Amino acid sequence: YEHLLEVERLQTRFETVDGIAQAVSDVSFHMDRGETLGLVGESGCGKSVTSLSIMGLIRWPPGKIVSGAIRFKGDDLLQLSPAEMRKVRGDRISMIFQEPMTSLNPVYTIGRQIAEMFRVHRQMGKKEAHDRAVEMLRRVQMPSPVKRAREYPHQLSGGMRQRAMIAMALACDPEILIADEPTTALDVTIQAQIIDLMLRLREDFGTATLMITHDLGVVAEMADRVVVMYAGRVVEAGQTRAVFKSPQHPYTRGLLRSVPRLGLRSETGRSRLKEVRGIVPNLYHLPEGCSFTPRCPEAMPVCKETLPRLTDQESGHQVRCHLYG
Ligand code: SF4
Ligand code: MG
């Protein structure tokens, strides 16, 4: 296989009483070993649905992966049985969420939940699994790990819960970590701590990370490459430095214009993507042409009629826009 993870022409939709919502229309990207890929876009652009598709967590009804492939080390995850996918999840590929309570069970201690990962995926005995759980808490710099291991999620602060969730996600040394807005719900000081922790753990574990965020500061600090999504499609992709230095797509340019001091660690200057003007697209009625047409300052007649293709620019930079032939 060529890449650690290869998402190819993924199409995921939701069929509801209101009609069919095309959450992900055509998404392709890849990740290599140890690399951090930033997946950015405003809420509803399909980034979370993309990650849930990778994790095998789209459930019918109402969700459905209609077409595409998600190859992990060359094998298409979409062809695996639910039992096979359960083995991949948490062991080879794991995920952390914005809200730790999504993955932490309120009725079990933190230590027991992390130990469970070793028991299920590594068939360890109780004592050994517990010791490894405490060791994991230490590696994520949980204060008083022995004591915290005996506590329940509600006894921990938000930042500590995030550390516990990261410990659980990394317990089995996965090859890919998917982090869906891991710092969004935290206050800025704790955000910075969690980002620092993730940077350190990346060195320590060498895990490839798919960082889903609408915080461009996080992307600038963490991502080697970035994929920008809009209305369920990739509109721009490339090396973070190249995309930030010369954004091509009008949407990306708008995003970056709304960020005052990019790449600098400024706790107050973190900018969010909702600042791009215009109305968020309706996924039930996507226009035939470019979805960004209603908000685009550079829209031309062709934009309304024809969907632009994602085309290769120099050195791996890709853009989906009629401005670039
Ligand atoms: Fe704007 Fe047209 Fe490019 Fe879409 S294709 S981003 S409407 S210029
Ligand atoms: Mg989301």
From TrEMBL:
Record has Calcium as a keyword: no
GO molecular function: ATP binding; ATP hydrolysis activity
Keyword Nucleus: no
Chain coiled-coil ranges: none
Topology in membrane: Peripheral membrane protein
CDD domains for this protein: ABC_NikE_OppD_transporters (cd03257)
Pfam family, any one: oligo_HPY
GO cellular component: plasma membrane
UniProt keyword terms in alphabetical order: ATP-binding, Cell membrane, Membrane, Nucleotide-binding, Transport
Subcellular location: Cell inner membrane
One GO process term, biological-process aspect: peptide transport
Domain ABC transporter: 5-256
Similarity comment: Belongs to the ABC transporter superfamily.
Protein name: ABC transporter ATP-binding protein
Organism: Desulfonema ishimotonii
